[in-house]
Amino acid sequence: MTLEAATEVFVQGFCFARSLTSPYVPTLHGDLWVLQDGPGRKDVPRTVEIVTCNVDPDAVLKQLGRPRFRYALAVISGNGQPIETVKDRFKGAGFRLLRREPLFVRTCEDLGHADASVRRVVTAEDWKAVFRASGRRQIAKEHLERPDLVRLYAAFEGEATIGWVKSVAVGRNSWVSNLYVEPERRGKGLGFALMATMLREDAENGMEHSVLLASNAGARLYPRLGYRQVGMLLLFAPTRR
After folding, report:
1. What global pTM score does this model have?
2. Looking at residue 22, what DSSP letter applies?
3. Does residue 189 share a domain with residue 126?
């Protein structure tokens, strides 16, 4: 999978996940993805996010022009591009670095790992249990009957929900969204079990590649699951308008 293809999976999957309350829509302008609220949002507008694989700040600024909206810029650099050089070039162009997150990809397949505590959320009761544990909807209730769009997995211990993750379909690939394990349950293989169950059903549903962004903790877990890093996302904010 190319870096551009992995970036599109991230963009489309991320926007789907952010569209539970109101549409968050990606459009491609040249080599810049523009992610923003769709028609009908009545609450405070969300920050516009610009995503690109182009690490040439001059070319990016030329395409951006002079935006009159609040935005963040995500630049995804490939493995062969020196991260510090990219960071310094955008810093010199008037941006400050907010954070960095590695981008990972792997093929979807059955890892041969099973855990009875993990299952796909298909009932209203399980959906409500994850809602209560997480404090927000992980998927819309109507998505329980649309595994072709998104599938939510959760780990249960008795009546307690102790972890979850979801897979968002983007064409023949999937975006991994919001892997979470309760702090007191971490380090015991539960994250691995959630991901393994999801990957097995990704493969069963015809998905070819799984794409995700990793936190510091995730960056240690995902290589154990066979993910390989293909790039680094650098998130910037403009220091001047």
Report:
1. 0.93
2. S
3. yes
Determine the Cα–Cα distance for residues 39 and 225; give it in Å rounded to an integer.
39
Same domain, 27 and 70: yes
Structure tokens at 216: 């510091």
Tokens at residue 160, please? 């307690």
What is the C-alpha separation between 4 and 20, in angstroms, rounded? 26
Determine the 3-state secondary structure of 228 from DSSP: strand
Write the CB contacts of 51 (distance below 8 Å, at least 6 apart in sequence): 7, 10, 11, 32, 33, 35, 74, 76
Q: Where are the alpha helices (DSSP H) in the chain?
A: 3-17, 57-64, 83-92, 124-134, 190-204, 216-221
Q: What is the pLDDT along the chain (241 residues), one digit of tens a residue?
A: 999 999 999 999 999 999 998 999 999 999 999 999 998 777 888 899 999 998 899 999 999 888 878 899 999 999 989 999 999 999 999 999 999 999 999 999 998 888 889 999 999 999 999 999 999 999 999 999 999 999 999 999 988 999 999 999 999 999 999 999 999 988 889 999 999 999 999 999 999 999 999 987 788 889 999 999 999 999 999 986 5
In contact, 79 and 105? CB cutoff 8 Å: no
Kindly state whether residues 44 and 72 are assigned to the same domain. Answer: yes
Q: Which two tokens stand for residue 111?
A: 């890892």
Question: What CATH number has the domain bearing residue 157?
Answer: 3.40.630.30
